[in-house]
């Protein structure tokens, strides 16, 4: 990922509040969901259980090719890291989730 083209912008996607970043050749969002936990993950295909720091998480590729890492916070809340870019975005999405995770309760 290259440098950010602009400042992060607030966004609301469904029930999630988050921020979107637009690095060159990619897009990244970090969304906080306060009304649904990991059991509410809806994926079009295979979902992989992963551990990010001290949190359980789920990783999957969305219909548009974005990689989503949903990090569980409580049974009814999670933080979704979504990365779309060239090549396989999942290794970078996992790395970003590792940077976000220490800030979570």
Please provide a brief summary of the model.
This protein has 105 residues and is mainly beta.
Structure explained in plain terms:
The protein has one helix at residues 90-100; strands at 9-13, 16-21, 26-33, 47-52, 55-61, 67-74, 77-85. It is built from one helix and seven strands, in the order βββββββα. A seven-stranded antiparallel beta sheet has the order 1-2-3-7-6-5-4, with helices on one face. The chain has one domain (9-103). By secondary structure, the chain is mainly β.
Q: Oligomeric form of this entry? A: single chain
Gross morphology is: globular
Based on helices, strands and strand pairing, what is the structural class?
mainly beta
Calculate the mean pLDDT score and round it: 86
Tell me how many strands there are: 7
Q: Give the H and E element order.
A: EEEEEEEH
Overall number of structural domains: 1
Uncertain segments: none
Largest sheet: 7 strands, antiparallel
Rg to the nearest angstrom?
A: 13 Å
What is the distance, rounded to the nearest whole angstrom, between the alpha carbons of the first and last residues?
28 Å
Percentage of residues assigned to helices: 10-25%
InterPro entries: DUF3558
What keywords describe this structure?
47% strand; 10% helix; 105 residues; seven-stranded antiparallel sheet; 1 helix; mainly beta
